[in-house]
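Morning!

As promised:
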Amino acid sequence: MENNQKHIIKTDNLSIGYTSKKYINLIASNLNIDLKPGNLVCLLGKNGIGKSTLLRTLTKVQPAIDGDIFINQKNLNEISNSNLSKQLSVVLTEKLPESSLSVFELIALGRQPYTNWVGQLNTKDIKIIETALEETNTKHLMQAKYYQLSDGQLQKVLIARALAQNTDIIILDEPTAHLDIHHTIETFTLLKKLADKYGKTIIISTHEINLALQLADELWLMTPKKFVTGKTNNLIENNQLNNLFSSSLIHFDKEMKQFTISKSN
Amino acid sequence: MIYPINSYHKTFTILTISLVLIFILNISLGSVFIPFKQTLLALLNENTKNDAWKTIILNYRLPKAITAILVGSGLSISGLLMQTLFRNPLAGPFVLGISSGASLGVAILILGASFIGVNITAFAYTNWGLAIAASLGAFLVLSAVLLAAIKVRNTMSILIIGLMFGSLTAAVISVLAYFSSANQLQQYLFWSFGSLGNLTWHEISTFFVIFLIGLLLVTFIIKPLNSLLLGENYAKSMGVNIKLTRNITLISTSLLTGVITAFSGPIAFIGLAVPHLTKLLFKTSNHKTLIPAVAISGAIIMLICDSIAQLPNSEYTLPINAITSLFGAPIIIWLLIRKRKIY
């Protein structure tokens, strides 16, 4: 049987976009996802194609225009925010508002779905925070204020916060947008490790196609024509990556597993 | 593992001892000279050498000092809540026009009576009447500013909108004042100077009950306010009910600012300056620490301002509003000029 493992995220003919009083701005439609747990997924697509909109819809930040989303076999519309916060955590691109939170306090906020009404941490919470600090290699930073961190350190701390939230799914919107190549690779390998070691389902939108091809278990390709999901190697074999950029400037080289500049003869 | 959340026991102990000392000092000072030892005797309800002294202390100075504590801590907590909710370091009850809203409520009650032609004077002068009118006025303006803040994310714009609401309410009050009798006008004017004194024990108990309700509501939003430090989207992803949190913050700040403004007049700068001074001292953004910390600091600073306003051993009392502005405005200017980050 093919489906011996249950899906963790599934969508049925999902349409995403923005609604206002006057009109509906449809960004993408007919999105069908059937994702099994424990995979590192990279969402690829050119700028403005709707990657962030898809992630925002999956995380219930904005409503779907049409179609259904199922998280752990339950319709997203029927999952309360507090329940969802125990199944799905996020790392966002937006700048944090100014505050003097310490790294430890910031990561500890991830325990909020589980703590009592004043947010008291118990020994189990502390232990989970400690694991998050160790997994992301940020323990030496825990006393620092978050605004003292470099972009690379901050990204690890934000991932640690999501880890502390102890959810099956972590969704990250362009986690490596501001990072140099060293920190980008570090972040990707960290996420891959978390998917493999803890069986977490990790979804990231990214422009790091070469890294995605090397590390991702599964790719979601958003092209103007259609939305394709599948195992990384299958998509390479089927020439699906060539559709990503409808441009004569670059094409995907199957042998080298990367995009190269098209030679104009 | 070392638990790196500072509980600030030492700072809290020092602050609390300072509060008690300044409280006693505040009571021992006033237009009538009363020896320090006699002050303590009166406070312990022992007989003093001069019976008048005991009356002055128990029926005038003690209620005034308690009012100062309630006003100082309430305004400071309101300021802190607004700074977090608006994600704006310059938010405060006065800057955002909330105090003006409360003033409008009181003005409509005192001045508007003749304007509408209905005699509600009897109701107007009861404490509940003033408190309800001021809280409603505060709530109205705060909701309007918040509605604008949801649409306009820009920090500067929100502050300007708050100022505009302040101007609007001031204009309405001017119109009301134009049609009022000299008697009503005087009543309103004295109220607007701000005053911590003249409250009977009965009035203070009314004040205290509403203050406690506001404070009780605040305890329910400590946790969501902390997650709001990461922004609304993160807070939502951690299961926080943003709407509920915003509403509770609105209601508790309206209650606190409303009741304070009703009983003591519009008092400027405490709500804006005290949270910043406290954050400098505690170097934390955690509301579990900050809320009690700003409450104690606010009380201390209000007591100091009141002691100065008394001009000890003289017959004069300065308007408390002038003293808090003289203290608060330079602090804000200093904080901004220093060019260090303020939160």
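The two ends of chain B are 30 Å apart (CA to CA).

Hope this helps with the figure draft.
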